[in-house]
Design goal:
The chain is an alpha/beta fold. The protein has one domain: 3-Layer(bba) Sandwich (FAD/NAD(P)-binding domain). The chain is built from 14 helices and 19 strands. Helix 1 packs parallel to helix 11, helix 2 packs across helix 11 and helix 11 packs antiparallel against helix 12. Bound molecules: flavin-adenine dinucleotide.
């Protein structure tokens, strides 16, 4: 037993950062949270929080709010490019795993967790881009920011995402994020476009000969009630190249790519605005997640490509598990080691699964796509059961 650290510096106010701050405050630790960007309520895109992540939101009192402001996903259904139904997974999630899977706007989730952190007296600072960390014996850890300011604490948590600057400090010249060769496009369209269809609370997804498309309700707001996303082989074109194009040009590309796909896909794309383009990166494994008094969590430690729908839920799990471990008054290095021992195998298993799932969204020959669709139809019930381990994890019960 040693003296408990009193003050944490957390870098990154995405998902892992604010939620870790909330759990560290519960553990009696003061927290300063630093975000590189200005405060914004307009972070783009939608996402799904799985039951395992919803347990964490329930623990901090936000599950009901997110269900009310988002949309429960009653299943995840698969179709072929021409609209033939291939199967359905992820049904009865609440009955099976204690929480539903919930679609939501990333901005809504971010707003709710930041508000909660504020209410819990977390000190939040925006436009503070971490550039370096100093960790000398008998001195506090010092975080230096791009604007020339600095902050001191007893330890530092890197929750700064896939392009983590903290990772550079923990593992200088370590592995870089891996580009999986797929590009993601996404955004919202008005509810009215599918309100009278038979979709209900399902998330509908389509495997093309090349690429993938998905959509579902994510909010009660009439303007951004439906989230959609398109995943495509990059064919060597960087996401940044698309981001440099006008919205009209991106939309033309998407309409062209998905031409002839079943209804309502072209209709949704016609209505798309403010399209977000993302590279599909992951971090399969790092030699270590910590160095002295600095620890990596969330995407900074184990970024996953989005094809398992788990990155945000893993980040939430990390936050809660770290908070719980920090309650035991162990030496910091011991706690960091316990955290990595507990979390690494699960996180890396998800990253590997997501990479495998991404492979079915690449380019196929017409025959290859036909075979893939038949295989999916046949194997979906089995593969669905093989994913239960992700959703059945309850971070409160570890
Ligand atoms: C297209 C797409 C769709 C996805 N869909 C899903 C989904 O449906 N379900 C799901 O569970 N997951 C999904 N994910 C994954 C999920 O978004 C991430 O796993 C999750 O956001 C990780 O949270 P995080 O807090 O670790 O990192 P982030 O959310 O990336 O937050 C990191 C924060 O750190 C800040 N930052 C970065 N560098 C610095 C610096 N130097 N100084 C200070 N601050 C810094 C960033 O600005 C950011 O705010 C998706 C990802 C993508 C790309």
């Amino acid at each position: 037993m040693t003296q408990r650290p009193r003050k944490a510096l957390i870098i990154g106010a995405g998902i892992a950062g604010p939620v870790t701050a909330i759990f560290l405050k519960k553990a009696g630790i003061d927290v300063q949270l630093f975000e590189a960007w200005p405060h914004s309520t307009g972070i783009g895109g939608g996402l799904q929080i799985a039951p395992n992540g919803m347990h964490v939101l329930a623990e901090i009192g936000l599950a009901d709010e997110m269900i009310r402001r988002g949309s429960i996903a009653e299943s995840f259904d698969f179709y072929s490019q021409s609209g033939v139904r291939l199967g359905s997974v992820n049904q009865n999630m609440k009955a099976r795993f204690g929480q539903p899977a919930v679609n939501m706007c990333r901005a809504t989730l971010n707003e709710a967790i930041l508000n909660k952190a504020w209410c819990d007296n977390v000190e939040l600072a925006f436009e503070k881009r971490l550039v370096s960390i100093e960790d000398r014996a008998d001195q506090p850890v010092i975080a230096h920011f791009a604007d020339g300011t600095s902050a001191e604490g007893d330890f530092l948590i890197g929750a700064d995402g896939v392009h983590s600057a903290v990772r550079q400090h923990v593992i200088p010249d370590g592995p870089q994020p891996f580009d999986t060769g797929l590009i993601g496009f996404g955004g919202f369209v008005p509810r009215s476009l599918i309100e009278n269809s038979s979709i209900g609370q399902r998330v509908e997804t389509t495997f093309g000969q090349s690429g993938f498309f998905g959509y579902g309700f994510c909010s009660s707001d009439s303007r951004d009630g439906v989230m959609w996303w398109s995943t495509q082989p990059a064919h060597g074109v960087a996401a940044a190249t698309f981001r440099a194009m006008s919205q009209d040009a991106i939309k033309r590309h998407l309409l062209n790519f998905h031409a002839g796909w079943h209804d309502p896909i072209p209709r949704l794309l016609e209505a798309a605005e403010n399209i977000v383009v993302t590279a599909t990166l992951d971090v399969a494994t790092l030699p270590t997640w910590s160095r002295k008094r600095t620890l990596l969590i969330g995407d900074a430690a184990h970024a996953t490509s989005p094809h398992a729908g788990q990155g945000a839920s893993l980040a939430l799990e990390d936050a809660m598990r770290l908070g719980r471990l920090m309650q035991s008054e162990q030496e910091l290095g011991v706690t960091f080691e316990a955290f990595e021992n507990e979390r690494r195998s699960r996180a890396e298993r998800v990253v590997a699964l997501a990479r495998r799932n991404g492979n079915s969204k690449r380019e196929f020959s017409a025959t290859g796509a036909w075979i893939r669709d038949r295989m999916l139809k046949l194997l979906l019930p089995v593969t669905a059961r093989g994913m239960d381990w992700m959703y059945a994890y309850d971070p409160r019960a570890v």
